[in-house]
């Protein structure tokens, strides 16, 4: 090492660097050993030139300076235990494990420079915006992304190799071709071994190849795309499946290309279908919209445990309930969905039969669940205010909910409202149908999206359709607007304007 620090030598060979050669492009252990030895020898980052055994050394003066060669030999022969321990943050070790897999030939120099600075500049570990650290993090992120893409975009094809012909019970060999951007093949191999433990497979890449025989991973040299097998019957089946699960209503080309960049398409069999499926998406979507919706079954299969007195009133064989008292008794014991088991009580609609107007909300709230009456909490008070301003008498309208039990989650001692699922709303559908059949309203008012879906049998975007009147299959009219609780959730400065607009929706007289 004396040659490297001799002033005369430095003057004669100002460009001379110490070449350090690692055993392969992802030799983390070799990098750690060399870096610790270099630190012990006080070698500055700019005095070191890093190489891997698969890349020839290109430094101008490295081959002709005996002292440099001797120093390199000393570095390579330095035992790991001879170098003093180096204290670095644990996250730097993790960063090295990933960033060293990057394809940038300067990655070793960058990581050694960060290591040197961590040792000599203690403040660096507290500076996440340092340019070197940011660049290394970007390298690590690129490697993680490349790993993710390899997991997602590897496509296997079957090959009946010699092993299969001698032992067909073991299954054919599954071979895939992939072109990673970085040196990730050996790092990603254990994932595929865990994922496809029961089958024999091989993944070919230009740099490295992996093979799994069902018990052991082996690595080999790189291959060319021509070594991969041609399409097989399984691929045709996959293309048929891909074509049939394509949903034109959910097509977002920019997002798809972000998650599946075009550079991967030439190795994906389904890529040939993307362009024609995308081109026909608008027409396919229009055809889906025009299709007549499937009619909902009147009742879902259920298991009820009814008291003898209630069972005597109505065994409920699927026929409609014709009286409100009977409906209340039956809904108390309804267990067609899990909500009923947790609520205090069922909350059915109330109001005069044959009312001209019927208002339908989503479900009972906390106060409704405790009192057993619909719209008596804060949302109900806002609805009552609207009735007063519109000249509607509460006692002259029928108010109810699409779902008859309160769905909530506990947060401390508070019960916080949770939106019922479509399945839970569908389980209550027949109770709502019974109420409509008894009331025979002239106009139904859907307060919110859940009520609109239950009344119209399809999803209705409330904000886009508020104030509009739709017609049901049975000819009844349905006005769609917001649920009053939506107004209560608005900031105070927006509430009055929103209330005025909501009042205009409800001005139906």
UniProtKB/TrEMBL annotation:
Secretion signal span: none
InterPro entries attached to this UniProt entry: DNA_repair_put, DUF4130, UDG_Type-4/5, Ura-DNA_glyco_family4, Uracil-DNA_glycosylase-like, Uracil-DNA_glycosylase-like_sf
The protein's name: Type-4 uracil-DNA glycosylase
Record-linked SUPFAM superfamilies: Uracil-DNA glycosylase-like (SSF52141)
Domain Uracil-DNA glycosylase-like intervals: 348-507
Keywords (A to Z) from UniProt: 4Fe-4S, DNA damage, DNA repair, Hydrolase, Iron, Iron-sulfur, Metal-binding
Stored Pfam families: DUF4130, UDG
Cited SMART domains: UDG, UreE_C
Keyword DNA damage annotated: yes
Molecular function terms, GO-annotated: 4 iron, 4 sulfur cluster binding; deaminated base DNA N-glycosylase activity; metal ion binding
Family, similarity comment: Belongs to the uracil-DNA glycosylase (UDG) superfamily. Type 4 (UDGa) family.
GO biological process entries: DNA repair
